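Long-time lurker, first post. I've been practising inverse folding by hand and with some scripts of my own, and I keep getting stuck on stretches where the C-alpha cells seem ambiguous. Below is the full C-alpha cell string for one chain I'm working on. Before anyone asks, I'm not after the true native sequence, just a reasonable design that respects the backbone. If someone could post their per-position residues I'd love to compare against what I wrote down in my notebook.
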C-alpha cells in the first residue's frame, strides 16, 4: 500500500513536486517590461515621434495614454506590433515640461500588467544646464 508516511515515498513526492516547478517556469511568469524609449525619468531635448515598449514575451495592448504638462490626456493608438515590442505614434507635441505615459497590456498568460513612465522635454536654457542627454 502506498503511504506518504514512508520516508522513501515522502521524498519521492517532494522531488516530483520540486521538478514540476522547475520544468514549467513559464506557466507562472508574467510579461516584464525590458526597455522603453524614452526611458523612465528621461530628460529629452526634442520630442520623439513615437514611444516604444519592449517586453520579454508577446503582449496585447489594452490602454496607452499620454498626459501632457498642461494636464491634457491623449489616448495613443498602437502603430506597430512586432512582438514582443509595441510602438505608439505621438502627435506633434512641443509643450515644454513633464509628460506621463501610462500603459496597460495583457500578457500571454492572460494577466494584465501596467506601468507609468515619465519624461521631460527641456527648454533651451535647461538643455544648456544639463548638457547633452537623451
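-- Answer (accepted) --
I ran through it position by position. Result:
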Amino acid at each position: 500500500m502506498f503511504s506518504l508516511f514512508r520516508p522513501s515515498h515522502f521524498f519521492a513526492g517532494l522531488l516530483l513536486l520540486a521538478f514540476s516547478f522547475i520544468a514549467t517556469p513559464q506557466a507562472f511568469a508574467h510579461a516584464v517590461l525590458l526597455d522603453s524609449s524614452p526611458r523612465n525619468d528621461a530628460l529629452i531635448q526634442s520630442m520623439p515621434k513615437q514611444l516604444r515598449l519592449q517586453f520579454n514575451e508577446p503582449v496585447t495592448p489594452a490602454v496607452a495614454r499620454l498626459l501632457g504638462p498642461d494636464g491634457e490626456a491623449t489616448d495613443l493608438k498602437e502603430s506597430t506590433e512586432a512582438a514582443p515590442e509595441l510602438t505608439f505614434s505621438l502627435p506633434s507635441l512641443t509643450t515644454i515640461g513633464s509628460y506621463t505615459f501610462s500603459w496597460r497590456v495583457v500578457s500571454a498568460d492572460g494577466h494584465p500588467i501596467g506601468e507609468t513612465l515619465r519624461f521631460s522635454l527641456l527648454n533651451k536654457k535647461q538643455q544648456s544646464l544639463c548638457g547633452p542627454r537623451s
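A couple of notes from the structure itself: Confidence is low (pLDDT under 50) at residues 23-27. Residues 1-29 form one domain. Happy to go over any region you disagree with.
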